[in-house]
């Protein structure tokens, strides 16, 4: 442990998350992990560390924090209002958080889940090879005001770096592939499904997101004859009232509702980051196109460190401006800069 971060005030749904627990589905435990895994990769790129380093996931709004040592932080995911000791700082960027300073993170502006990363990650005890809270399985818990989290050893590195903003916030198009029962829905129903503009229900959580829409519900001819079978995050179940539910990272492992399609993995963060009431429209693609999209997505994640850029800061907002060396070398106040040197 290299220090601690104290949660002075916790938002309503704050948890520790990493990339989750693959390999436990046969034991009844889904993968879990961050609702927006791309945000973990972005934080890791900004801090030059392992993408599986544990970070804080903040649903809807953040909280206030204080570290007992100076630490590096990065902020990714849904953009939230953020300041250090009252001075606004940039989102999707890395910063130094001085010891004793107060970091305040407010409400989300363009998504649902924001992430606070720390250099070295959070050094909490892993459970089944992961530090992620999986609330549906009873692993971990919502973080509370007054809790103190141990920090891992930080190898150090640059701060004041930023990344280009990704377009998964506010996107409407979500690509899906055919699922186990897609053909059980007749062609007219499948066409109506892809033509419908859905709205994310405000009751969505890490287990599932209900899609609201106008008009009649969706159903198969044998809606009540489906036998429970394995389901995965991204599956779109059609429940008894005809409403689609997109299963998210903490979904159950089996289910008996028919699935009209499955959201491809790289588009699932679009659903996770959709704000309540946000419009979403599903589009079927074939498996080859889905595999190509996933390959491109993984290549983009691997290339994140190369896309880092220096964070341009307004000098008027830099409190310790005089601590920086703004001019290198010595200049003369009387010399003519256009006069050539005499040999």
- The coarse silhouette is globular
β-strand amount: 25-35%
The end-to-end span amounts to 60 Å
**Spans where pLDDT lies below 50 across 5 or more residues:** none
Helicity, in percent? Answer: 10-25%
How many DSSP H or I helices? 4
How would you describe this structure to a colleague?
- The structure is a single chain.
- This protein has 343 residues and is an alpha+beta fold.
- The chain has four helices and 22 strands.
- The chain has helices at residues 37-47, 187-195, 268-272, 287-302, and strands at 4-10, 14-17, 55-59, 61-67, 71-77, 80-84, 87-88, 93-97, 102-108, 113-118, 148-150, 161-162, 173-177, 198-200, 208-212, 229-230, 235-238, 244-247, 254-255, 259-263, 279-284, 309-310.
- The longest helix has 16 residues, at 287-302.
- The chain is globular and about 85 Å long.
- 41% of the residues are buried.
- The mean pLDDT is 91.
């Amino acid at each position: 442990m290299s220090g601690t971060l104290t949660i002075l005030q916790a938002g309503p749904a704050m948890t520790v998350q990493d990339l989750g627990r693959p390999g436990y589905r046969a034991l009844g435990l889904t993968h879990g992990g961050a609702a927006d895994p791309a945000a973990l990769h972005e934080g890791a790129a900004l801090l030059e560390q392992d993408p599986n380093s544990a970070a804080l996931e903040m649903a809807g709004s953040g909280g206030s924090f204080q570290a007992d040592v100076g630490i590096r932080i990065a902020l990714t995911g849904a953009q939230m209002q953020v300041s250090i000791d009252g001075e606004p700082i940039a989102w999707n960027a890395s910063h130094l958080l001085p010891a004793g300073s107060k970091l305040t993170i407010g409400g989300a502006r363009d998504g649902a889940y924001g992430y606070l990363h720390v250099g070295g990650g959070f050094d909490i005890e892993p459970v089944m090879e992961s530090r992620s809270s999986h609330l549906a399985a009873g692993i971990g818990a919502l973080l509370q005001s007054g809790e103190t989290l141990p920090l891992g050893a930080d190898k150090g590195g640059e701060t004041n770096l930023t990344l280009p903003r990704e377009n998964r916030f506010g996107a409407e198009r979500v690509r899906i592939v055919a699922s186990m029962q897609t053909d059980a829905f007749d062609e007219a129903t499948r066409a109506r499904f892809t033509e419908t503009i859905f709205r994310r229900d405000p009751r969505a959580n890490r287990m599932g997101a209900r899609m609201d829409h106008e008009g009649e519900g969706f159903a198969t001819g044998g809606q009540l004859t489906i036998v429970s079978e394995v389901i995965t995050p991204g599956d779109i179940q059609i429940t008894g009232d005809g409403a689609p539910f997109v299963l998210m990272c903490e979904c159950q492992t089996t289910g008996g509702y028919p699935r009209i399609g499955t959201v491809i993995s790289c588009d699932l963060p679009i659903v996770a980051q959709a704000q309540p009431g946000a419009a979403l429209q599903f589009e079927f693609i074939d498996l080859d196109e889905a595999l190509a999209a996933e390959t491109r997505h993984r290549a983009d994640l691997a290339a994140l460190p190369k896309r880092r850029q220096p964070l341009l800061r307004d000098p008027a907002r830099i409190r310790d401006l005089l601590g920086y060396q703004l001019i290198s070398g010595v200049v003369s106040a009387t010399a003519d800069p256009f006069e050539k040197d005499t040999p």
